[in-house]
Every structure is written in C-alpha cells, then in structure tokens.
Input
Amino acid sequence: MKAILGILGLLFITTGNAQKFDCAGKTADYQELLKENKIKESFDIWMEVRKNCPKEIEKIYTDGSTILQYKIDITSSEEKEKNVRDLMKLYEQYYKNFPAAIPDFEVQQAMALVNNKIEAKDEAFTLLENGFSKAANNITDVKAIHTYFMMYCDRFTAGDKKITSNAVLEKYTLVSTLLAQLQVANPENKDYTMAQNAIDGKIKEIATCENLSDFYNKNYSANQDNLDWLTSALISLSSECSSKPIFQTLAEKLYAIKATAQSANFVAIANAKQRKFPEAIKFYNESAALQTNPIEKAKTYYILATSFSANDAGKSKEYLNKALAADPKMGKAYLFLAQMYVNGSKNCAKTDFEKKAIYNLAIQTLQNVAVAEPKLKPAADKMMEDYTLKGLSASDISKEKMNGKSLTIGCWINETISFPAK
Output
C-alpha cells in the first residue's frame, strides 16, 4: 500500500509541475524576443516550451525551424550537423503532434540536409522518395521538387537497377504536374518555369516526343479514368509534343470526364495542332470562360487575338480588350494593339490626316505599356519614336483647325482621338 501511495504521490507531483508550466506565457515571452530579432536570446525559452508543451501550440514548430536554422547558421562546422539533426527531429515531432499541418515532413527533413550542405545524399534521397510517395500534392518547395528529380535521374544514369526509363518518365510526369500547378497558383513567380526548364534539360535524351508518346500510349488503358494521370501526361506533352495523336486522345478523354478551363485548353491546343481552327477557337473561348485566374484568362484571350484572328482585325481587337480587362498589366497586349492600329491605317483612314491620326492613337496606346509592364518600356519607346515621325505634328493639327477637337476613326478601329488645344 505504501508503494502505491508513493507512486500516486510522485504522479501528483509530476502532474502538478507540468500544470505549473505556463505554456502560453512562455510562448509569448520567446515570441516577443523574435519580434525584436533577438533570435539567440529566444532559444532557451523556446526549448522549454518545446519540451513542456509539445501538443499545446503548433506555432512552436514553425517558430522553432526559424530559431534552429539561425543556430545552424551561426555555429561552427563541428556543431553544424548536430543542429541540423535537431531541426530534422523537430520536423518529425511536428508531424507526430500535428500530422495534418506537415504531411511532407520527410521532404523538409531531406531539404534540411541539402540546404545546409550536409554530406548525406543517400539519406536525403530516401527521405525525398518517402515524402514524394506519401504527400506529393502537399509539396510546394520548388527546390525540393527540382532536387528530387535531379537525384532520381542521376541514380538512373549511374545504373541503379531499381530505376527504369519508364520510372524516370513517371517521375517526370509527376514533377511537371506539380510545377505547373504551382505556376498557376503563383503566376508571377518565375522559379517554377526555371525549375521546369532545368528538368526538361536533364531528361531531354529520355523524354523525346517519341518516347513520351509510346509511354502514354502503353499506359493509357490502365489510367484512362485517372484524372491526375491524364492531366500529368498532357502537361508533359503540351510543350513540344502536342501534335502527337495521343495528345488529342488524352485531351478529349480528360474533357469528357470533367470540363474545366484546363481540359478545354488542352482540347483547344490539340485541335490547333491538327489545324482544326474553328474547333480550337471554340475550346479556347470555353477555357477562358471557365478560367477563374484572371492572368490565365488573359493569356488565353491573347492567344485568340494573336493566333486565330489575323483575318479579322475587329475580332482580334475584341480579344485583346478582353485580355486587358482580365489583366491590365499585360503590356504585350498594348504593344500588339498599337501595331494593329498602324497596320489598319491603310484601310481604315479616309484621308492622309486620318492616317497620321491613327499613328497618334497607336502612340497613346503605347503610353500604357510603361505603367502596365515596365520591362517592356524600351520596346514601347522604340515604337513611339518611330510612330512620332509618321504621326501628326502640332502644325498638322493647327492647319486642319482640329485643336481642342476630336476625331472618330471608324472601321474596326472604332476609336475617338482627342487633340490638345493650342
């Protein structure tokens, strides 16, 4: 009985000590130090919270990765790996206590090794393999995607018998899909395009159009109802291999299962490659209508304006206006529209004055470029310099007594040009 009472007493004391630890208060203490950029000073308090409150507050893990990385960066090389291992342990603890928050913890462990230049390639690769097999759709680290594929290819090249050329193509399909999805979600981030270009270069000798076509033909029947597989295959083929018959088969199947902006776009590309232009225009329009991302919507309308409306300037202008309505920062749409106005001056101008006035309209259009997309300003300036020589001078406007007046150009241009008063 005494032994039982002793154990109960010990449990009471232990529980009492745990209850005395102020998780919220201590967390606030170290976070206040982080706000003041006193990362080194926050370490000991954070470690107390990590030990005593592992399941209380998720933030201790995200804060902890910052604190431990700082410690890694400032410690000597002898201590570096020890601290990296502690960071890896933290990711594992994070997953154990909050699994839904970090399903790709093994990928983050691998990248802790890679980013901190710890010589453990086999270990990093195994962690990446596990992470990508379990939680590929949760991975957003572009460097992790790039690193994993490069390591995979290097092992194939080195003669790893467990990795076949078909397996490499499967991985290529997977990482291309992940990068494409991330690019759509973050259209202004160029890292995804850079990573895809590097991956394409790495696999160039394996992922030829012929090999990809054969690969997807062989695997189509087993995956024809798998949306992810169909999408991955189409993304892999879309850059250079969309003229292959398998591309149209895959595109039409995906669209039949689920009509989305993406699936309609694939069907449009397939029809364009087969020179079925009315069908391509139809599906590009549907893709734009279904698209919720304004930047992607603008890109689709720009394709319609520049690729399918060469013989219908009015329609081309309509699509350019739709593109600019969706994405006012699309500077190239202004460049194209200005060029269209100049090209249309021959047919739409009734007099020499009107012809020159259209150059002025083109100049006004180009003035939007610098605001919309500053990197295109040099191209716009060059065009404006040329158009100014061919447009109306102040004396031309005065001679026609048009100061302070407006001129409407008809035809497909259908714009009114206002002239300054004297």
Remarks:
- The first strand starts at residue 406 and ends at 409.
